[in-house]
Amino acid sequence: MKIPKTLGGQIDFLYKLREKRLAIEREANSLKANEKVLHSTILLLLREQRAEKASGKLGTVTRSVKTIGKVTDWDAFYTYISKNKAFELLHRRVNNTAFNDRYDAGERVAGVEPETVVDLSLHKAGA
Length: 127
What we know:
The chain is mainly alpha-helical. It contains three helices and two strands. Strands 1-2 form a two-stranded antiparallel sheet. The model has no long low-confidence stretch (mean pLDDT 94).
């Protein structure tokens, strides 16, 4: 990848790269949607045929079953976590909107410090 020397050239190059990536992502999302339809159709056919596994010439599918947690009562869930010190049940990340709302209001959240992150906002010229 050859990066242009001028700032304007670099911005235009970044814009072209992003547009190319977004086009590829749109195509990938379309393919993923088609995969999802086939996935559901194949699961239905396996169930109808009472099969756990099936093969074509190129691929094999195996039906798998797993258990996941689905929260039905957040208050009870948080009480359980607090009572049992089971914080590993939660993802370790801060909700930045909630943090910034508190921070902007002058409230400090224990154990969390603000960090300034510098980024770019890229838009089509003239837009």
